[in-house]
Known about the structure:
By secondary structure, the protein is of the alpha/beta class. The chain is built from 16 helices and 10 strands. It has helices at residues 2-5, 16-30, 36-43, 47-60, 75-85, 102-113, 128-136, 166-173, 190-198, 200-211, 227-230, 236-244, 265-268, 276-279, 295-303, 314-322; strands at residues 89-93, 121-124, 146-149, 177-179, 214-218, 220-221, 249-251, 254-256, 284-289, 309-313. The radius of gyration is 23 Å and the shape is globular. The protein starts with a helix and ends in a 5-residue tail after the last helix. The model is unreliable at 1-9 (pLDDT under 50). Residues 76-321 form the Sugar-binding domain. Keywords: DNA-binding, Transcription, Transcription regulation. InterPro entries: NagB/RpiA_transferase-like, SorC_transcr_regulators, Sugar-bd_dom_put, WH-like_DNA-bd_sf. It holds the Pfam family Sugar-bind. Belongs to the SorC transcriptional regulatory family.
Amino acid sequence: xxxxxxxxxxxxxxxxxxxxxxxxxxxxxxxxxxxxxxxxxxxxxxxxxxxxxxxxxxxxxxxxxxxxxxxxxxxxxxxxxxxxxxxxxxxxxxxxxxxxxxxxxxxxxxxxxxxxxxxxxxxxxxxxxxxxxxxxxxxxxxxxxxxxxxxxxxxxxxxxxxxxxxxxxxxxxxxxxxxxxxxxxxxxxxxxxxxxxxxxxxxxxxxxxxxxxxxxxxxxxxxxxxxxxxxxxxxxxxxxxxxxxxxxxxxxxxxxxxxxxxxxxxxxxxxxxxxxxxxxxxxxxxxxxxxxxxxxxxxxxxxxxxxxxxxxxxxxxxxxxxxxxxx
Length: 327
């Protein structure tokens, strides 16, 4: 008690070192989740001084606390989605059907930045939507995070910029490191996949991916706009076969129907990355989808339990609820 009452002891500096101390304490509080007692012990200040510096940091704008009210979201749809599909959480961005991916990507970036405790390892996919999420992810959203790629990569596709830079951007903004998965998303033979996954480097990446506390990925479409087909990972004839079998899109390269079932086991056996079984075993599996072309694949992913957190737009959420009991 004497230490806290004696406010004149250990007087705070009044120059640049004071601002440096203010920033240091703010980071310890809001980025490292340390208590006033822990901060006081590390800085040599008392709790009253730590509290005073935090308040001053807020007053001067060194710390800005952003509150995102749920009125910018659609709480009724979120609750119905969570109850209908057994989700851990849902985030629905209201707006017109043609609003594009930016609103959903921004919401996903904010959501990821607010996860507590902050993940030490996060697994991400590539793609245009995930590139937008990486763009909207705030700087310093994490501190020393390991960002691992959870599915094989594809060749650059004309007209789609930076779709392979997602993990690097996540890591750079989170002051961490990227762990790439340096293999194709889909290979020509099942034996090739088996050999590659036994390689020490690839096996280590997949082991880290399976240990990630958080997984975040976008859902892919089937048909002519599929990046996996446009990049050459699967052939046009294979895509035609997938569509005949009822494919509505892919989850990390695993093509599913409206019920979330794998439509082509032979092709699926050639797909490198986390499996659908891996997805069902993680605590936070965040699926991100926006736009009419993602309605059916989102429905399938929800029905099969391949995601337990969904970030989407109002139209996609409404579609999933309207067709939740379709066979």
